[in-house]
Task: inverse folding
């Protein structure tokens, strides 16, 4: 297994761990969704930075694109301080669009190299967009429910990101 695949698995597992923490938050009467969105975009920025520096030798700039895709909603969250579900959904939509562009760039990379992974990544992108749209639509409920939605969105994103390195490893060992 290459270093990049190990880093990708570590990043995916950290996203899954973060999502479990988010899902537990309502049990401790945490219901500040504005602060949670700030922390979530900050964590995605930190994770993208770590990913970029760990695998920059492989000339894969996906980590840098994740940083750029996450820092814009982070700045918007700091400036606006979203309080209504509509504002939170709008910022989430901006993040989803930027992350989708990042994932589309990765699909193009695989397609240009005639790698079969582009089909898998296209399917993963479709699931990511569908999950994001459903999450944005369902943000109109109580704060505890909004936190659970963010937890499930992060969990699904972590699971979807886990497919790429595992499939690459299975294809290389087949």
Result:
């Amino acid at each position: 297994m290459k270093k990049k695949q190990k880093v990708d698995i570590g990043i995916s597992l950290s996203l899954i761990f973060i999502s479990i923490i988010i899902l537990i938050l309502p049990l401790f009467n945490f219901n500040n969704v504005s602060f949670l969105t700030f922390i979530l975009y900050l964590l995605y920025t930190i994770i993208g930075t770590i990913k970029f520096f760990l695998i920059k030798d492989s000339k894969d700039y996906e980590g840098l694109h994740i940083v750029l895709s996450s820092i814009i909603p982070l700045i918007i969250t700091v400036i606006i301080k979203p309080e209504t579900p509509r504002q939170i959904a709008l910022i989430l939509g901006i993040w989803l669009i930027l992350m989708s562009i990042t994932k589309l760039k990765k699909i193009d990379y695989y397609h240009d190299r005639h790698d079969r992974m582009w089909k898998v990544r296209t399917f993963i992108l479709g699931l990511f967009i569908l999950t994001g749209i459903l999450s944005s639509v369902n943000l109109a409920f109580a704060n505890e429910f909004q936190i659970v939605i963010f937890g499930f969105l992060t969990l699904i994103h972590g699971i979807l990101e886990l497919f790429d390195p595992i499939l690459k490893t299975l294809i290389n060992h087949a």
